[in-house]
Amino acid sequence: MGGDPPLLLIMSRHGHRQRDGESGFYWAILSALFEEGRTEEGIRGYFASLGRRLGYFMELHMTREEKAEVFHRALHESLEKLLTDGLVLESDGVYSLTEEGRIKAEIPYREILRGQRVFQKGIAPATVSTVTLMVHFILAAVKLPAAILSGSVGLLNDAVDTLLDGFSSLLVFFGFKFRREGLANILLVVFMLGTGGYTLFKAVERFFVPYTPEADVFTFAAAIISAVVCLLLWGYQRFAGLRNNSFTLVTQSVDSRNHVIVAVSVTAGLVASRLRWPLLDTLVGLAVASLILKSALELLVELVKAGKDGEVDLSRYKFTFFERLRKGHLCSWLLYLVERGEVATKDQLSAKAEEALGFDSPEIHVMADFGFPTPDKAFVLDCLESLFHDGRLEEAGGGILLTPAGKKYLHHRLR
């Protein structure tokens, strides 16, 4: 089993806690003791170590005594229950699993392994393309009748685009099946260009053949459902595309993102029709066409670059929000270490961060298997450089100091 069980048990403890009636850190403690015995302080350190790798720095949330007291009490009560249940034994302050405890700890481990296989299958390109195909045809079946009944050019363009996406998804599906992903990329961009051109034509036509769309409850519902579904589809495709380094899936995610914006714009056009301002619906159609064409041209540029360089750079499509969030937590923790006097130089601070995050730990690789963002040395270096660049840390006399700006930033984050 190696180093896998500890993290996997922590990830699965909540389901077992609800089913068996345990509370607090019951299942997490089993995971912490799976490989070796630990003191109560060592168990807390184990939790803190895993949390850091997920971007959660326990020390920053335990600066208030009441929070630390609640945490320590819950941990101690869970340890006492494990002792009472005969799953853990204690000797000279060191806790370890009994044979019964080890058997029970392996149950969620086997379950999480099954979940891991389901997860990997769920983000496989063939699975994603199948789900995308089904979603597009279902959305088209909902939006086309709504567009025809209401006469909304924005919704009609979006419905036609969704229908065409269904056919393009079919091509993608066969592209993955017959290992013709490169051809599928080209066809996707061609479809997007064609769709953008069509929506532009329909929008311009409305200037010469004006029409006031009828906005009813069904039409509004179709637009809102489209926005929600496409938002979920965007996240699914983008995540799977980045995990599999698949430009095809990333391209589809760009199209899904466009549909979210389109659905919101269509809703605005429908509201305008209720206010007797049909021109806005036509303007929405123009905006939609421009957006689709812009995205298609950007992807076309990426395809051309890929033809020259042999691969596509997908770094610009990462989920930057989560990266910024993790960076903020890490930077706050680094400032916290300096303020407490635990480090005195830049090299010590870097070494402390690398040690605490445990880049070589087996759990890092398990996290990556489940899609959790895992830090690396470059990430730590980037945080350090930003702290000095932003004036929150400064070097003086061979050491480092926390500046007033750094103290203000840290105390603000600790509130």
Question: What do you see in this structure?
Answer:
The protein is mainly alpha-helical and 415 residues long. The protein has helices spanning 5-20, 26-32, 40-53, 58-61, 65-84, 99-122, 125-150, 153-177, 181-208, 217-243, 247-274, 279-309, 320-339, 346-357, 362-369, 377-389, 404-413; strands at 38-39, 88-91, 94-97, 393-396, 399-402. The protein folds into three domains: 5-121, Orthogonal Bundle (Arc Repressor Mutant, subunit A); 123-317, Alpha-lytic protease prodomain-like; 320-413, Topoisomerase I, domain 2. It contains 17 helices and five strands. Strand 2 and strand 3 (94-97) form a beta hairpin. Helix 11 (247-274) packs antiparallel against helix 12 (279-309) and helix 13 crosses helix 17. The longest helix is centred in the last third of the chain and has 31 residues, at 279-309. The model is unreliable at 1-21 (pLDDT under 50).
Count of separate DSSP helical elements? 17
Mean pLDDT: 77
The CATH class name of the largest domain reads: Mainly Alpha
Instruction: Work out the helicity level.
Output: over 70%
List keywords for this structure.
17 helices, Arc Repressor Mutant, subunit A, disordered N terminus, 3 domains, Alpha-lytic protease prodomain-like, mainly alpha, 5 strands, elongated, 415 residues, Topoisomerase I, domain 2
